[in-house]
Amino acid sequence: MRQPRVAEIVASSLRSRILSGALADGDMLPKQEELLAEFGVSPPCIREAFRILETEGLVTVIRGNVGGAIVHVPHPGTAAYMLGLVLQSRSVSLLDLLNGMRLLEPACAAEAALRPDRATSVLPRLRANIDASAAAIDDPAAFIGLARAFHSELVNNCGNETMSLVVGALEKLWTAQVETLAVDRSVHGTFADRALRLSLLSEHERIYRAIEEGDATTAERAIREHFSGGGERRHGFDTSVTVKADTLRY
Q1: Confidence at residue 4, expressed as pLDDT on a 0 to 100 scale
Q2: Distance between CA 4 and CA 64 in Å, rounded?
Q3: What's the average model confidence in pLDDT over 18-31?
């Protein structure tokens, strides 16, 4: 097996401090002189360790006499952006992204329904979203944003951190595409139809009720039917176009 280089060992130690919370977002890494004394290595080794962490997005290196390295704790937006870059490099279509959500989000709905603390953890957020959507029923642009936020709230609060991160990254990417193609350009597609907005609101209400009752099977089925019935395909833009990571603001 290949032995790690000294710079990789230094980078691994500093990375552990960042990921453990010993170094907070916005903190500065120790000065080079301190690291030289701590690790007993050469300046080029410390600089290479900094480059490794900078490539990973964990630090921003400020060069010059008053330089240093600013810590960046990883967050979900970063994961979504990196995933978006990979999808864009492979020319993955919006329809493919949408189908991924269609397959995975029902499992998040089931998890949310099984949360013993759902009455305080997820239901109030979904209820607030549904009420806001009802209030915005005559504003297509506002309704589009709220309809997307319903799905984000569901995924982010499903209770499984891994699924929240993975499926949440897909949600962030899809929402960014919707904002660019539908909202920013005021292209409301079939959302311009008030009857359709009311139908979507009713579907969200059905999902909410299933989660409220702790019925994982019905919650999962309700989300699946929501997608299959076109719940997320009613925007009126071309889903054959490629995912664009640079639409994501994180």
Answers
A1: 66
A2: 29
A3: 94
Per-residue pLDDT tens digits for 166-179: 999 999 988 888 77
Question: pLDDT band at residue 184, thresholds of 50, 70 and 90?
Answer: very low
Question: 76-247: what fold?
Answer: Four Helix Bundle (Hemerythrin (Met), subunit A) (1.20.120)
pLDDT value at position 185? 45
User: Cα–Cα distance between 115 and 190 in angstroms, integer?
Assistant: 34
pLDDT for residue 66 is more than 70: no
Q: Which CATH number describes the domain made up of 6-71? A: 1.10.10.10
* CA–CA separation, 99 and 46 (whole Å): 45
- The tokens for 75 are 């967050």
Give residue for tokens 């269609």.
102
DSSP 3-state percent helix, strand, coil across the chain (nearest 5): 65, 5, 30
Structure token digits, residue 114 = 């099984």
Q: Do residues 164 and 156 make contact, with C-beta atoms less than 8 angstroms apart?
A: yes
Using CA atoms, how far apart are residues 38 and 45, in angstroms rounded to an integer? 13
- Report H helices in 90-139: 94-114, 118-121, 123-135
Contacts of 240 (CB under 8 A, 6+ apart): 93, 94, 95
Q: What is the Cα–Cα distance from 210 to 158, expressed in whole angstroms?
A: 13
The two beta strands, 59-62 and 68-71, are: antiparallel
Q: Are 188 and 141 in contact (CB under 8 A)?
A: yes
In this prediction the pTM is: 0.79
Q: Which residue has the tokens 């630090």?
A: 59
**What are the boundaries of each domain within the chain?**
6-71, 76-247
